[in-house]
Structures are given as C-alpha cells and as structure tokens.
Fold:
Amino acid sequence: MTLDTRLKKFPFLDAKDLHRAVVVCHRNADADAYLSAFAISRLIRAQVPECEVVIATPGGMTALTEKLSKRFPHPTLDDSAEDYDLFVAVDVGGEELLNEWREKMSSSKGLKVLVDHHPLRDGRAYDRVVVDEAATSAAEVVFALFEEAGVAPDGPTAQALLEAIMFDSSHLAIASPGGLRAVVKLMDSGADLALARRELRSTPDYGEVLAKLKGAQRLKIYKAGEWVVATSSVGSFQAHVARSLVYLGADVAVVGGESDGETRVSMRSAQRFHERTGVKLGTQVADEVSRSLGGHGGGHSTAASFSTDVGEEEAMEATVKKIGELLGEIRSVD
Ligand SMILES: [Mn+2]
Structure:
C-alpha cells in the first residue's frame, strides 16, 4: 500500500479543521464505490463526530447500487455548489470519472485524499494518496484504514464492506489474500455472508439483457495464435457485453459503441489470458490506444475501457490492431 503519512493518519485533518466532508464516487457509482464511501463516512464520523459528511455520486449510480443505497442509506448528491474541508475520492480509477467534481476539487482549498485500488496514473490532484493496487476492491483499502485507525466497523458498516469486497471480486472467486483476510475479520464483526450473496443479486435489467443478446448477434471473431478475440458493438452496457463474451469463452472481448457524440470501448480478458501473455488491458491497450486517438482511458489488467471522439470503427480497429501487436499476430475468423 502506498500510504503517504507525512502529516498523520486518515482523515489527515484535525477535528477542529474538519466540519464538512464529501466522499466522491466515480461516475455511475457501482457497489464498491458507494459502499466504500458509506464506510468512509462512518470512519470520518467515528473520529470527528460533529463532521457533516455527504456522498457524491456524479451522474448517479447503477441499478444495483440504487438498491443497496436503500439498504445502506446515506445523504447523497450528484452535484453541489458548496465547498468542503475534506474531499475523499474513492474507487475512481481515472480523474475524468469524477465529472464536475474534478474541477470543484482543484479550485477548492480543502484537503483532497484518494482511496483506491486502481493503478495510480497521476496523483497530482490529491494531497494524500492511499492506493493498494493488490487489493481487488476499494473496500479492502477502506477496511485497512479502519484497522489503522483502531476503529471497529459497526454492524451495517461491516456488512457494507463485505458486500463491496464480494461485488468487486466475483463473489470472492478472484479475491486477493488481503481481501479474504478482511472478509474473515468482517464476518467476525458480525457481517453475514449469506445475506451479502442475497443482497448482491440484482433483478435482470431489460436494457442490459437486450444489449448482451444484440452483442452476441453482432459478434466478430479473431484468432491471435492460440487466443480467441471477440469484438462487438452496442449502444450501451459495453462492459457488461464484454464480460458476457468472456463467459462465453472468448479470451479477450472488445465492445464498442457510440452515444452522445462519444465512442466508448470496453474490454475484458480471461484471467488465464493475462497470466499466460502478460498483457495488461488497462495500461497496454486502453491507455495507449486512447492516447493515440485523443481520448482517455485505462483500467485493470483484465478489465479496461476508454472513450474518444473518433468514430467507433476507427476506435475498434485501433484496439484490435494494438492487441495483435502485443500478441504478434491477429486475423479475422470467417
Ligand atoms: Mn472497485
């Protein structure tokens, strides 16, 4: 963990200087972002009880997060004209995912802290950075902050952290050792595993189902050595479609789509593909391709995305070409 402790521990401010705080999720907050923010709010108020804390969800939240936010309620806002003493960005990945909060933070004199598990590309926007790239969820990093502060999470907070860890680790299938250790401690604090499984179940969203089926219909298949690369095109839910194509058996899936004058490309790869080839989709594909096209992107080794102003065809072509370069060859399978 890269823990910058030049001043002291989280929240890095004296109680007398900390009256208003905001915990900012990435846009369209997922379960890890929101539940981690929920827990950070508890941690701040455990240390500074008078502090007023809100959670910002720029651009709203996913349907599942919406459901979880009723189970773990907290004052939230999308946008705000207020200023804060403390900004905590959580699970954001790239700064651009903070939407208008990026600008708000840079023009504020408040302290800016990043709590994340995504690879840190540029930490200049923050005064303090708490990043653990080995963690499978931001919630594990948040749990480490509780331990460091000597604060025991209360019942709802332990449950929220457990659900966030499970959400980001495919129900623990890809959980890191640190994540599993956190899970055991959270269960010892009263978190309920069976309840977490139930609460993370989401009712199928019609738009998502349609996107996945259309994505399968528009499939293109490539072969790169022993690897199968599948591409497709849908107007929304690109990440969900890419994930489904990997479930179907593709080693790498790249799904593009245009909406509101922007092209968005999401990609996923099988863990086995990453381990055998060493290809990191976030840094080697999404980041590089978006840079060459004029756009922004990044992500993890097996899950990444970028957006750009160039058309979908050009963006997809550049992505497939990049993957081919990394693997030494790529050809279309008819
Ligand atoms: Mn996360």
Observations:
- The mean pLDDT is 94.
- The CA atoms of residues 18 and 85 lie 6 Å apart.
